[in-house]
Design a protein that fits this description.
heterodimer, A: 1232 residues, alpha+beta, nine-stranded antiparallel sheet, 18% strand, elongated, disordered C terminus, B: 354 residues, disordered N terminus, transmembrane helix (chain A), metal-binding (chain A), translocase (chain A)
């Protein structure tokens, strides 16, 4: 059942931990050099970092001090291919003093070099600027893309081939073919193919339309223009004509037509910024680099030649492995040197690159997998009943053929002469056998013929109806304005079309926390500076959102986001650093503004005088801190590799970034070493409280540390994410020492990451505490209410989060997942044995609690929710528990708990937990998440929901449904899920019933025709029966019927329980329906039989009576069950009956058919109308009575709610005197 | 049933964000509000309340019982004389070899009987023949005809569906072809009242629609019953098919194995106790398969012939409905359940009692 799609994309948030040795670039730190000079001379020290040339206030100095050895080293090892691995820093005062700092997520030179060579067989060779040679040996795919499946020529065979993958279609095809055999021709050729042809046609038209749209978008895409180098100049060329090996020029804001390896960019350092929103949905800019070997080459002027050897196309958008031979040198290429199709070039005037993968071989296209396909639970159950129906079918056919056998045996002597049989043909002189194949074969043929006649016992139209109904249901879900998210401007998306009804039966909800329950929009809430708590809420609650702005060159710069500020703190921060307090505040905000990896981007607004500063960064926390600092007057305006410019209270200050130790998950902190304008050097550190408190010098300011700790405690209990900030001033010897070891570490060839970590640890110590920040990861709107509703609906909500336990618990409380009434079981163990012990203890405890609460249950539920259990378990324990024998124990325990919180879980563990439940119960599971780390869980669960939020689109791509907010889960499940389930369940049963009634009517008649399978109902009517006569109403009802209004369903989530109890579709209902079927078919058949026995009625006339009777009866049956009559329902039901009458009239007006004019004759008699009326009333009475008695004396919740809705005493439902029990008993009744 | 309008549309989502600029609105993917897309079309929501159900049952009972009585009454007034003659019309010396008798073309097949009219029979008196155990609805039989051939002379040779009576041995088509026509019923009846011949009219015994559109006026019988095996009546080759009323009646194959076919009409009242002498030409072979042949004289009523079934059925259904109505009233009085009573909700009931 689970879809087996591969996890295409590794999380971009998992940094590449291999910070590997890099090149020693600088041995002489004191030699001043300028960036521009570096660039001009194309010196080896010019790295891939940002080049701040245009910002440098210092004129270029000499560049002569490079040693040859450095040159050679760096030319061999080339530049660092990785992200921001190498940056240069200017010491503004001393002159340029380049420093490099540790990197993150890089694929450095040594790493690539150390990797095994790409085998020639596995590689594709690309001759730069020589597409002819490139494609000579092996034709690479061109750049035209084809998402369309069919062409005009291939449409028919391919589409048919795909449609016949469905077993049901094969069945009907076989029957249609059987009917073509002359011995078996029950129906005319046309009539027998009609139903199948109709179904195939409808699907084919749908497919053709979709394919047409794909063709159109393909054509638009393929005909876009790009600049391609041809004859030493760039010419416009259509995308589809681009070939691998050609050199392309991309301008700003252009979309990439194929995957290219960057050769050079308009930026002198070879940086290009790209936006990958089309690829992975992340909106922040990413940096890509051109290799310095190719940087300066201008393809118009000199011919670039070279050879790129790269791996075969694959779908990993975060990986690329290649090397390039150019000018006799060999350089290696990594993922940061390639820009993928679909990305947009931003903030870079132009970029030049060589196409390596084109068309369908681009990574974007390879990742373009279709919507996931899952099968709904209801459909699986339906298949069981389909088997019962097949058994019925075989039984009916057996009865007919057995009777026929007996009849033939008993009349074997008369068969030659019977006027209505005539086994022998006397017309020729000799006596031939006429269409008689012997007793055995006759029986066999009778069996096959009866299969043909009774074929619609297996409802062919059901499959197409279900598809149409699901499309309709999806339409209404998508168009539901209550599932629209204003903030992200996103509609509900239905990506999987075949599990709509599963939404009505969910029992387990697995939710991610960050971005799902919370907004993942960090907001700076409070700060504790130097032991003083500044929480905005204390001062004024009006929540003033201050937009801080500065004037630069007559232009106003303003941060993009406004932050709520504490006026007291704002005053302090403006007061300057004259007072002690002011100084601390100054340092604190300086740390916030500087100690990060945020890149400020200045964007224009509609007002030319105002420009917005947009902080781009990978961590939302850092963004929040940078915005907060800006709001308090410390606006980060510019970041280059070597310096940052911070506007401190209106005064531009330039700081040199001497070093930066990036965040890693071991240290859990980061630090930046700043050179101040006054030549002092300070290190600023920020990090998680646990890791920071260990490196803070406790001997200093102990009481301030205490106070900060208290504040931290306070912040985390209100659910804030906390960071501690510390700093230290470095004296020159310390700095020199650090600098030396840092250089050594960052240039070391082996174990660079570990060395850098060590260097970082050495400098990040004895810090003096500056303060702490509290960032709120705001709960999404309506989350507590949503969780409450889901719980009341009988669903178990599990939260699986990567956060630490305390944060998870505090979020648990604030989202009302946990309540103070609950007993918490915390499993937090480091070994398998201790896990076992704690599980056992927990089991004992839960049993004790269950018995206690069991007693209270007996004395009445109203005595209160009793003790409910909450299980809190962490990732390390799960490592020991999952995939071991403890799994079963965990399941037992978890199924007793109403809440389960898993913290610190890895993505695969999330899937493991979902699988734990899915494999052990029959209950439906739903997983909801927003990030790449939720993909595995989303794919594992029966229903996967993606939140289209901040963290990109990977979760959405993997999901079955996507929406903007967690709280939409409530209307989705309680309202749409409930409706879909109820509609679909009813529709399936009704389709079974409808076809079975018809088959039984045919069957009864066969018993009166010598078992010769004559049908009184014309073949056209039998074929049109499930196409025109009865199909539309069931589809309309399946799409539009509503048992309860949205408001009732939302107000009383317990009504969702009907899906858990399988109330709309279960085996009992199936059998009851089948009994009703037999009764109704008997009434339809036998009333006319007795009324017209011994009368001159002809077969066609009575056939018309049966046709009308059966169609009107099944439509009235439906009408009786419709709960909400809109004009569409009216039109569909009455329209179908009228359409049937018209069809019958038309068929009877064709003179070449035997039944010519029959309906007009029989319609003139009163007996006909009396029969019809009698059939309808007598047929419906049993169902009507049972339905009424059932609803009146054994009412389901839905019935009561409907009555209450109608008669207006809705408010009393679960009113004051009767307490609603929010948590359902696990041992609740289930009907399977 | 009372129609309750849909819920108020105020929650339609137009609230808020109304002051956003028009550009934002254009870019917004927000689904447009309409009652249709929000599934809030005005609707009638019927509920099976006891009042409704009881009223329905009483209503049905009140309608059905009079109809039942009326049809029983009508059926009673139909006068019907049924006379089975297949056994009786065999001369005693042939009683052991009925088949030989009927297949022998030289035997005298005339059979004269007299029937007493039990009650006055108002004209028109319909004359039917009734066959029992004759499967005119057998698949092989039903299919063995050519409607094209019957309709027009041009498709005379269209006999592909008529086997085994499609063509003569020398391959000229038989018109009308097929088993149905071949087995055309060929007993004839003559009636005498007080030694005066009663005229049996064959006018309008066949459907006019059949005569006009289904059986061609230019199609004449050809090669009919000329083969080795004679199935039944011969046709006058000089009369077009559209005028062959007996054939047309016969070709409307009966729905059930026991059926009547209209033979003719007597446009004269028959008085009670009148003695009708019937002269039967007993030609048709039903003896080979144990079929019965009956002569039926019957008047008609507004519900057709004599058949009590419908009246009884209506009375039964009507009575049942009244009974159900009364019992529901009783049960309702004894054990009422307030509609929409929340105490019946599953989560309000004692879970141990579920």
């Amino acid at each position: 059942m689970a879809s087996k799609r591969p996890l295409l994309i590794p999380s971009p948030r998992t940094p590449n931990s291999q910070d590997l040795p890099s090149i020693p670039l600088y041995s002489d730190l004191v030699n001043p050099q300028s960036q521009s000079a570096n660039f001009k001379s194309f010196s080896p020290m010019d790295s891939n970092g940002n080049n701040p040339i245009e910002n440098s206030p210092i004129p270029p100095n000499s560049t002569t001090l490079y040693s040859a050895s450095q040159r050679s080293i760096s030319s061999i090892l080339s530049a660092n291919s990785g992200g921001n691995s190498v940056r240069e820093v200017n010491f503004s005062d001393v002159g340029t003093k380049p420093v490099r700092y540790g990197s993150r997520g890089t694929e450095s030179e040594a790493f690539s070099m150390s990797q095994k060579e790409i085998n020639d067989e596995d590689a594709r060779l690309i001759y730069i600027n020589d597409p002819g040679k490139t494609n000579e040996r092996f034709e690479f795919s061109g750049n035209s893309i084809k998402t369309a499946k069919y062409s005009i020529l291939t449409f028919l065979p391919r589409n048919l081939f795909e449609q016949f993958h469905r077993v049901a279609y094969i069945y009907f095809l076989v029957i249609a073919i059987l009917n073509q055999l002359p011995q078996l021709a029950v129906f005319g050729r046309g009539a027998s193919i009609l139903p199948l042809a109709f179904v195939l046609l409808v699907t084919a038209v749908k497919d053709a339309y979709e394919d047409f749209r794909r063709h159109r978008s393909d054509r638009i895409e393929n005909n876009r223009l790009a600049w391609v180098l041809a004859n030493d100049q760039f010419q416009q060329k259509k995308w589809k004509d681009i070939r691998v090996g050609e050199i392309l020029k991309i301008s700003a804001n252009d979309t990439l037509p194929c995957d290219i390896v960057l050769l050079s960019t308009s930026d002198p350092t070879g940086v290009a910024y790209v936006q990958t929103i089309n690829l992975d949905g992340e909106s922040n800019l990413k940096t890509r680099y051109a290799k310095q070997e190719t940087l300066s080459k201008l393809p118009e002027k000199e011919k670039i030649t070279g050879l790129i050897k790269c791996e075969k196309p694959n779908r990993n958008i975060y990986g690329f492995q290649a090397n390039m031979e150019i000018d006799g040198k060999r350089v290696s290429l990594g993922p940061s040197n390639i820009i993928l199709r679909g990305c947009e070039l931003k903030n870079t005037a132009s970029a030049i690159g060589v196409a390596v993968y084109a068309g369908r071989e681009t990574k974007a296209m390879l990742n373009n997998s279709g919507a996931p396909s899952k099968r709904s639970r209801l459909e699986t159950r339906m298949n069981r009943e389909i088997i019962y129906l097949s058994v019925f079918l075989i039984a009916l056919c057996t009865v007919v053929s057995a009777c026929a056998a007996v009849w033939l045996r008993r009349h074997r002597d008369e068969l030659d002469y019977l006027p209505y049989y005539r086994k022998k043909d006397f017309s020729e002189g000799k006596e031939d056998s006429y269409n008689y194949y012997g007793w055995g074969m006759e029986i066999f043929f009778t069996f096959l013929m009866s299969v043909i006649v009774f074929q619609i016992m297996i409802p062919i139209s059901l499959y197409i109806s279900m598809e149409l109904v699901r499309v309709g249901q999806a339409y209404f879900m998508i168009r539901d304005s209550r599932l629209y998210d204003e903030a992200s401007n996103s509609k509900f998306q239905c990506r999987a079309l075949n599990i709509n009804e599963d939404l009505g039966q969910i029992t387990y909800v697995f939710s991610d926390k960050t971005g799902t329950l919370t907004e993942n929009k960090m907001e700076f809430q409070c700060a504790s500076i130097w032991g003083v708590d500044y929480s905005g809420r204390k001062a004024n609650l009006q929540g003033e959102q201050l937009g801080y702005s500065v004037q630069v060159d007559g232009q106003v710069l303003r941060p993009k986001m406004k932050v709520k500020v504490d006026p007291e703190l704002l005053l302090l921060s403006r007061s300057g650093k004259d007072t002690q307090e002011g100084k601390h505040v100054h340092d604190f905000f300086l740390a916030l503004a500087a100690c990060n990896t945020i890149v400020p981007l200045v964007t224009d607004t509609s007002d030319p005088a105002v420009r917005l500063v947009d902080y781009q960064g990978e961590s939302p926390d850092e963004q929040a801190l940078a915005y907060a600092a800006a709001a308090y007057g410390f606006m980060l305006i510019e970041r280059t590799s070597g310096h940052i410019i911070i506007d401190v209270q209106g005064e531009r200050t330039r700081f040199n970034v001497l070093g930066l130790h990036e965040f890693d998950s071991d240290r859990k902190r980061m630090s930046v070493i700043l050179g101040f304008p006054d030549k002092s050097v300070k290190v600023f550190v920020k990090g998680a409280d646990t890791s920071m408190l260990s490196v803070i010098d406790k001997s200093l300011n102990l009481n301030i540390i205490r106070a900060t700790e208290a504040h931290l405690q306070m912040y985390s209990t209100i659910g804030l994410r906390t960071l501690v900030i510390g700093m230290r001033e470095l004296n020159s010897s310390e700095f020199e020492q650090w600098h030396f070891s840092f250089e050594a570490a960052s240039t070391s060839l082996i174990g660079r990451a570990a060395l850098l970590r060590k260097v970082a640890s050495n400098i990040e110590k004895n810090l003096s505490i500056l303060g702490a920040s509290g960032i709120e990861d705001k709960l999404q709107q309506g989350v507590p209410e949503a969780i409450e509703s889901l719980r009341m609906a009988g669903m178990k909500v599990w939260v699986l989060t990567g956060d630490k336990q305390e944060t998870a618990i505090s979020i648990g409380y604030s989202s009302k997942l946990l309540t103070s009434k609950m007993t918490q079981i915390i499993i937090n163990s480091g070994s398998r044995e201790s896990c076992r012990r704690s599980l056992e203890d927990a089991m004992v405890m839960s049993k004790k609690l269950m018995t206690v609460s069991g007693v209270t249950h007996d004395t009445g539920r109203s005595s209160g929710g009793a003790a409910t259990l909450a299980l809190i378990i962490d990732g390390t324990s799960l490592v020991y528990i999952l995939d071991s024998e403890l799994e079963e124990q965990l399941f037992q325990l978890a199924s007793k708990c109403s809440v389960v919180l898993c913290c610190r879980v890895a993505p695969l563990q999330k899937a493991g937990i979902v699988a734990l439940i899915k494999n052990r119960t029959d209950d439906m599971t739903l997983a909801i998440g927003d990030g790449a780390n939720d993909v595995s869980m989303i794919q594992m669960a029966d229903v996967g929901i993606g939140i289209s939020g901040q963290e990109g689109r990977q979760a959405v791509m993997a999901s079955d449904f996507a929406m903007g907010q967690f709280r939409f889960l409530v209307p989705l499940l309680l309202v749409h899920g409930h409706w879909n389930y109820q509609r679909m369940g009813y529709m399936i049963l009704y389709n079974f019933y409808r076809n079975a009634v018809f088959v039984f009517v045919l069957f009864w008649y066969v018993l009166f025709t010598c078992f010769s399978l004559t049908t009184a109902i014309t073949e056209w009517s039998s074929m049109l029966y499930s196409i025109i006569y009865t199909s539309l109403p069931t589809i309309v009802v399946g799409i539009l019927d509503k048992d309860l209004s949205r408001r009732t369903l939302l107000n009383y989530p317990q009504l969702y329980g009907s899906g858990h109890r399988h109330e709309s579709y279960n085996l009992k209902l199936f059998w009851v329906t089948m009994m009703d079927t037999v009764w109704q078919s008997a009434v339809i058949f036998f009333v006319p039989l007795f009324a017209y026995w011994k009368s001159p009625i002809d077969g066609s006339s009575i056939g018309d009576l049966w046709t009308l009777a059966v169609v009107i009866l099944v439509n009235l049956h439906l009408a009786m069950d419709v709960m909400r009559w809109t004009w569409i329902t009216h039109a569909a039901i009455w329209g179908s009956i009228i359409a049937t009458c018209i069809c019958v009239l038309v068929i009877d007006a064709i003179p070449s058919l035997p039944g010519y004019w029959a309906i007009f004759h029989i319609g003139k008699t009163r007996l006909f109308w009396l029969c019809l009326l009698g059939i309808l009333i007598a047929g419906l009475i049993p169902r009507f009575v049972v339905k009424f008695l059932n609803q009146y004396y054994n009412p389901r919740d839905i019935h009561i709610a409907r009555e209450a809705e109608k008669f207006g005493n809705l408010r009393e439902l679960g009113g004051a005197e009767i307490e609603m029990n929010p948590i359902l008993d696990p041992s609740r009744e289930t009907t399977r | 049933m009372n129609t309750k309008g849909a819920t108020t549309s105020s929650a339609g989502g137009t609230d808020g964000a109304s002051d956003s600029s028009s550009a934002a609105k254009r870019n917004s993917k927000k689904p447009k509000y309409s009652r249709f897309t929000q599934q809030e079309l005005p609707a009638c929501k019927p509920i099976l309340t006891p009042g409704w159900v009881i009223t329905t049952f009483i209503f049905v009972g009140v309608i059905f019982i009079p109809i039942g009585l009326a049809s029983l009454f009508a059926s009673e007034r139909v006068v019907e004389i049924v006379y089975r003659y297949d056994e009786g019309c065999i001369p005693t010396n042939y009683s052991d070899q009925k088949l030989a008798y009927i297949q022998n073309s030289t035997t005298n097949k005339t059979c004269t009987r007299s029937l007493i009219v039990p009650k006055q029979m108002k004209r028109p008196v319909y004359v039917y023949y009734q066959l029992d155990n004759f499967y005119q609805n057998h698949r092989r039989y039903v299919k063995s005809r050519s409607d094209k051939q019957l309709r027009s002379r041009a498709s005379e040779s269209d006999t592909s569906t008529c086997d085994p009576e499609g063509t003569t041995p020398d391959n000229s088509p038989i018109v009308p072809c097929g088993l149905i026509a071949w087995s055309l019923f060929n007993d004839t009846y003559g009636f005498l009242v007080n030694n005066k011949t009663l005229k049996v009219s064959k006018r309008n015994i066949a459907w006019k629609s059949d005569q006009e559109h289904k059986f061609g006026s230019d199609v004449y019988p050809k090669n009919f019953q000329s083969g080795g095996l004679i199935g039944g009546a011969k046709l006058n080759a000089s009369i077009p098919l559209s005028e062959q009323a007996d054939l047309i009646v016969w070709m409307r194959t009966a729905a059930f194995p026991t059926f009547r076919k209209l033979y003719g009409k007597i446009e004269k009242d028959l008085e009670a106790n009148e003695n009708v002498t019937v002269v039967i030409q007993n030609n048709y072979n039903t003896y080979s398969f144990g079929g019965k042949k009956k002569l039926v004289l019957s008047t008609t009523s507004w519900i057709g012939g004599k058949n009590d079934f419908l009246g009884v059925a209506y009375l039964t259904v009507g009575g049942l409905c009244l009974f159900l109505a009364i019992s529901f009233i009783l049960v309702y009085v004894v054990k009422p359940r307030p509609l929409g009573d929340p105490s019946f909700l599953s989560w309000n009931r004692n879970p141990s009692g579920v």
